[in-house]
Design goal:
The chain is an alpha+beta fold. Helices cover 22% and strands 57% of the residues. β2 and β3 form a beta hairpin.
């Protein structure tokens, strides 16, 4: 039986929420082994003088622990 762990990460992008998600998953895969899935907990935007400066996502990433 596999044992998994969930960690929360925050990722940002100047382009879009989709780009922030992809950047976050790419970064998680560089640090964590056996990434199996993720779900988006929250989305937000950072504004600068009324214009969107950054798209941010908070995601929960699930990875399976080694035996």
């Amino acid at each position: 039986m596999a044992v998994a762990r969930v960690t929360e990460i925050i990722a940002g992008s100047k382009k879009s929420f989709q780009d922030a998600i992809e950047d976050g998953i790419d970064r998680a895969n560089k640090t964590l082994k056996n990434v199996e899935g993720a779900w988006i907990k929250d989305q937000s935007i950072i504004l600068d003088k009324g214009k969107i400066k950054e798209y941010r996502v908070v995601m929960k990433v699930t990875f399976v622990l080694d035996d």
